[in-house]
Amino acid sequence: MARTAILRRLTWAIAEVVDRVDETPRVRSLGLDVPDWPGHLPGQHIDVRLTAEDGYRAQRSYSIATPADGSRVTITVERLDDGEVSPYLTDVLEIADRIELRGPIGGYFVWEPSRGGPLQLVAGGSGIAPLMAMLRARLQARSDVPVRMLLSWRSGEDVIYADELNAIARDATGVEITHTFTRLAPDGWTGRTGRLDRDALAELAWAPSERPLVYVCGPTGLVEAVASALVELGHDPARVLTERFGPTGG
Amino acid sequence: MTDAIHVDGNALGGLLIEVFGREMTDARGCCASCGTVNSLGAMRVYRSAGDVVRCPTCGNVTIVAVVIRERTRVHLGGVRWIEPVA
Amino acid sequence: MSFISRGFQRRQAPAVPSDRVPPGQHVTRDFPVLSAGPTPRIGLDEWRLEVIGEVDQPRSWSWQEFTALPAEEVTVDVHCVTKWSKLDSPWTGVPLDALLDGLETSAGFVVAHSYGGYTTNLPLDDLTGGKAWVAYRYDGEPLEPEHGGPARLLVPHLYFWKSAKWLRALELRADDAPGFWEGYGYHNYGDPWREQRYSGD
């Protein structure tokens, strides 16, 4: 099933919006029901295509935020103010609307429990989406791969999946989650602030000697800085996988 | 040098499937300039008038994808070979 | 009949073509940064601008020499093949007419070479007669690296990919030779007013 999910030829499918969850003031998760969905691996993405009445088309990629679950695919979209596609997805789409997409896409930035670990997940902002699919898959499979997750947010109100992450941090064994805030920490926050720089990574990430599988996702600047720092600290570059989304594509 | 205007080869995942008929981000490619082998997904993609894919080791152009009049053309002049996963 | 997304409209409709906006373009207030590669970082001490190739005497300027040349402040419209146009953009630069003044050449063509390896080609005529500059300030400030600084070519009457960033050298040639995007299917000349985006247009 997993192999089929990577190798299958792509066609555009029309999916139905079956769920909408407001994660933060700017971020919404959309649950989509996709006919004939072959399943997918954590880390894969879909391409979403919008077509206007005059034929104009816009297309963007979104990571799938959930592990394989029949015909259900969930994406987590941050609304970019000057975006063309994201405001449509977060503000216009309603339950029962339909949307054109293709997938699953991606064979490189992919993790499943059988790949082992330890697993190091690092994200900035909405870059958490594919890593959340990985974390949810690890829990669903009751895998004992140890996980460290480092999450960088601008402010307290930007935290996506906050309740779920708190529950996981509290209840799951072998999963450590650390948040840092770069602009405005929540009231009463006694935890970490500031960027995930080399010192922070040296302190918080799995040591290179553990040979972790590392997945870094987020804005290009953060991913570049974190990936470079990890390699400088001694991590094998072949085990540091990155998914940048640039400043474009909103 | 850092610059904030590139993405990873994943971003071309859909386009590559269109052209090759199968997943290609986990395919390996050998840079024609420096000979280093990397996953296509690990290569750096600069997006402007087309998608310019560069070797993460030496920075030279490996692949260029251009969509012209709704047809996608992939130039492979910067790779010695590409090898999809079995 | 393809699927239509309920309630979706393009964010920036093309402007009505006018004497300011070529066909198929929309006007933006931003200044998008698009590049075929990483931004080169050139120290002003090492920077050189050269005119080479089919010339009697190659020319070369250091940064001091180049910025001592008489420069013009110009306000021009620029048109990118990716469909954005930016009107009334303010630049300071040295006219190509001044850089090439007195040059003896039989060349009809130019290839502009950038730091970092980018190239683009144009007829020599399109660089002369008050049509082009080597710009080093934008809106009164030093041109930022992401926009082509220290200095870039500025040729507003052609699509903006012809205005090579991080300019290093102008190579004069008897014969034409396609540059980077021209070799990947873009139009050899690139007149936005005739919508010459792609080869064959």
Structure description:
The complex is a heterotrimer of chains A (250), B (86) and C (201). Chain A is built from six helices and twelve strands. Chain A has helices at residues 2-7, 86-92, 128-140, 162-171, 198-204, 220-232; strands at residues 13-24, 27-33, 45-51, 57-63, 72-78, 98-105, 119-124, 147-155, 175-184, 192-193, 213-219, 240-245. In chain B, 9% of the residues lie in helices and 42% in strands. In chain B, the strands form two sheets. In chain B, strands 1-4-5-6-7 form a five-stranded antiparallel sheet, with no helix packed on it. In chain B, strands 3-2-8 form a three-stranded antiparallel sheet, with no helix packed on it. The longest helix of chain B has 8 residues, at 13-20. The termini of chain B are far apart. Chain C is mostly beta strands and 201 residues long. In chain C, strand 8 and strand 9 form a beta hairpin. The chains are: A alpha/beta (250), B mainly beta (86), C mainly beta (201). Chain A binds chain B through residues 6-7, 9-10, 45, 47, 61, 102-103, 105-110, 219-221, 224-225, 241-249, and chain B through 2, 4-11, 13-14, 17-18, 21-27, 39-42, 47, 85.
The major beta sheet of chain A can be summarized as:
6 strands, antiparallel
Radius of gyration of chain B, taken over Cα atoms and rounded to an integer in Å: 12 Å
Question: What profile does the largest beta sheet of chain B have?
Answer: 5 strands, antiparallel
Output mean pLDDT of chain A: 93
Which parts of chain B are unreliable, with pLDDT below 50 for 5 consecutive residues or more?
A: none
Distance between the termini of chain A: 32 Å
Distance between the termini of chain B: 36 Å
Estimate the strand proportion of chain A: 35-45%
- Which two protein chains have the largest interface (Cβ within 8 Å of the partner's Cβ), and how many residues from each? A-B, 29 and 26 residues
Low-confidence stretches of chain A: none
Highest-level CATH class of the largest domain in chain A:
Alpha Beta
Question: What share of the residues of chain A lie within helices?
Answer: 10-25%
Strand elements of chain A, count? 12
Give the spatial strand order of the biggest sheet of chain A: 4-3-6-1-2-5
Order of helices and strands of chain B: EHEEEEEEE
Identify the CATH homologous superfamily of the largest domain in chain A.
Answer: Nucleotide-binding domain of ferredoxin-NADP reductase (FNR) module
Strand content of chain B: 35-45%
What is the domain tally of chain A? 2
CATH topology of the largest domain in chain A: Rossmann fold
Shape of chain B: globular
Radius of gyration of chain A: 18 Å
